[in-house]
Structure formats: C-alpha cells, structure tokens
Amino acid sequence: MEYTLEQEDNTCVLTLEGELGIQNAGELKIAISGILDTCPRVEVNLAHISQIDLSCIQVLCAANRSFEKNKKIFKKKSGNRKIRDRLIQLGFFDNKGYTEGPCVTCFWKGEEK
C-alpha cells in the first residue's frame, strides 16, 4: 500500500494505491487518525486499489464513524470495480443494492452502482 495526502482548500484528499490487506490495516489506521486531527473534510480516492480485504474495509468504516462522531466529513471520492465486487462478496450489498449499516452516511454508499 502506498498513499498520498493533498490539501485542497478545506479538504484533504487521501489517495490509496496498491493492495489493502491485513498487513496494511495498522498503517492505514495510523494515517487516517492523523488526518482526523487536522482536516475537517477528507475524500478518499480508491481508484488505484488493486485489492482490498475485510480488515481495511473495517478500518475505513471505523474512520467514517469517527469522523461522524467528531462532526467531520469522511467520504469516498472514487472507487473501482474490484472494490465493488469485494463488497458484494462480503455482503455489503444485497440483490436490491445497498444494505443499511450503523452509520448515518455510510462510506460505501454509492459503490453498489
């Protein structure tokens, strides 16, 4: 996993690249935790992710909840087909589309399309 962070006005854009697996979950959590303290709004670019597993999906979901709790915005800027297919495999979407979760604004909403 590689990542870059760019500031655009009051928005931080976190671009993730490569494989997001269990071996990267801790690093991803630390990177996002640092951003929570400094950025009121974060957009995550997942367009260059080649693979994602449940551990990193959970980190991104937990980050979304933390940002909501702190009245900040954490949202997906772009995804890709591989992520969508993996989310379907893991049950995030049913045959009708998005399956509601515990967040007010789910990080993955819109990925089912």
Structural features, described:
There is one protein chain. With 113 residues, the protein is α/β, with parallel strands linked by helices. It has one domain (2-98): STAS domain (Transcription Regulator spoIIAA, 2-Layer Sandwich), CATH 3.30.750.24. 37% of the residues lie in helices and 35% in strands. It has helices at 22-38, 54-69, 81-89; strands at residues 2-8, 11-20, 41-52, 73-78, 93-94, 97-98. A four-stranded mixed beta sheet has the order 1-2-3-4. α1 (22-38) runs parallel beside α2. The model has no long low-confidence stretch (mean pLDDT 84).
Outline the fold blueprint:
Elements: E1 2-8, E2 11-20, H1 22-38, E3 41-52, H2 54-69, E4 73-78, H3 81-89, E5 93-94, E6 97-98
Parallel strand pairs: 2-3, 3-4
Antiparallel strand pairs: 1-2, 5-6
- The unreliable regions are none
Kindly provide the radius of gyration, computed on alpha-carbon positions and rounded to a whole number of angstroms.
13 Å
Q: Could you give the distance between the termini?
A: 25 Å
By DSSP (H or I, 4+ residues per run), the number of helices equals 3
The proportion of strand residues reads: 25-35%
State the secondary-structure class.
Answer: alpha/beta
Main sheet makeup = 4 strands, mixed
What series of H and E elements makes up the topology? Answer: EEHEHEHEE
CATH class: Alpha Beta
The dominant shape is globular
Number of domains: 1
- What would the CATH topology be? Transcription Regulator spoIIAA
Structure summary:
The protein is of the alpha/beta class. It has a single domain (2-98), classed as 2-Layer Sandwich (Transcription Regulator spoIIAA).
